[in-house]
Amino acid sequence: MTAKGYGRISLLVLEGDGIGPEITAATLAVLAAAERIFGLRLAFEHAAIGWAAHRELGSTFPPGVLEKALTADGVVLGPVSHNEYPPREQGGLNPSGELRKQLDLYANIRPARSREGFPPRCGKPVDLVIVRENTEGFYADRSMHLGSGEFMPTPDVALAVRKITRAGSLRIAEAAFKLAMQRRRKVTAVHKSNVLRVSDGLYLECVRAVAVRYPDVAYEERIIDAMAALLVRDASQFDVVVTTNMYGDILSDEASEIAGSLGLAASLNAGSDHAVAQAQHGSAPDIAGKNIANPSSLIGSVAMLLAWLGERRDDPKLVQAAQAIETALDRVIADPASRTPDLGGPLGTDAFAAKVAQALQ
Ligand code: ATP
Fold first, then answer.
1. Which of 281, 294, 302 to mutate to test the pocket of ligand 1 (most atoms within 8 A of CB)?
2. Torsion over CA of 46, 52, 57 and 63, rounded to 10 degrees?
């Protein structure tokens, strides 16, 4: 942990693909305003990833980027078009997956909160956080030490490995209960242990073991399919939702859309020593380069990163800046005339960011 007020805070900026460069530039404009107002001492370093890096260096995650991320205080990661990358052997590495694995970013924190002037789809105000395990589960690039977690024994049979560990389940449960203590003190564990008795059974056993150490937190369990329906019916009943990797990925998109829009959905990938701010959505190639993307998701993610850094460094300025960015986003989004086209508004990405920066004053 860095001592209070010492040194600059180094942020590595990775623009990514599609709308990445636009929403990253918009986010940096808001950060620049926050830096001025709150006297933050930020130092930015940029590195190419994604298609831009592949064209120049033959890899979507070139050598050196990981080292920069390891030494930075935090990383701002734009969305990446990893679904379209060539195979790994031809330089197609998923920067998001690589950072999650190599920096051991085990907790993907994904809030879904409804905002004033933008009614939630379930009719009641929503304020929940999905705490998604990020380093194992049903992800082919994360379940094996060597090789892929997906393979074909014959041309007509495909298999996939899903990895659940005691250590991974315990630490994600701990992160969820700690977060719940700062919120409304309720944790919902989501699983499918009625079918996946061994793997989700181990996961649930671990969450229950942590739950008994937090008697002040209300604890409940929901099966994933029921949870998907309950979110639509009444997402307002949930506070912190803890789950494994793929369930969390799917539920968080659902929850964000119910709370308002995926374009507003922020997220933080956090480990013990590193954190990466990353929007929940993808690179939206259909609207790239048109200056119409909504940068709220990445702006909100960076606010989460500042709050995370502020807590670790015991620096109230960072926490204040994070809260101010969230409030400014709320105020700007509340006005229909200040929204981007995805929310029915007239503003371009850059004009929206300028409004948020102005609202920080
Ligand atoms: P990828 O292949 O990178 O996942 P995608 O387009 O398949 O990209 P998303 O990027 O998640 O998936 O986009 C889903 C839809 O939401 C698209 O129609 C996209 O235009 C829209 N969208 C996503 N992010 C934003 C945003 N920040 N602002 C406005 N629209 C967005």
1. 281
2. 40
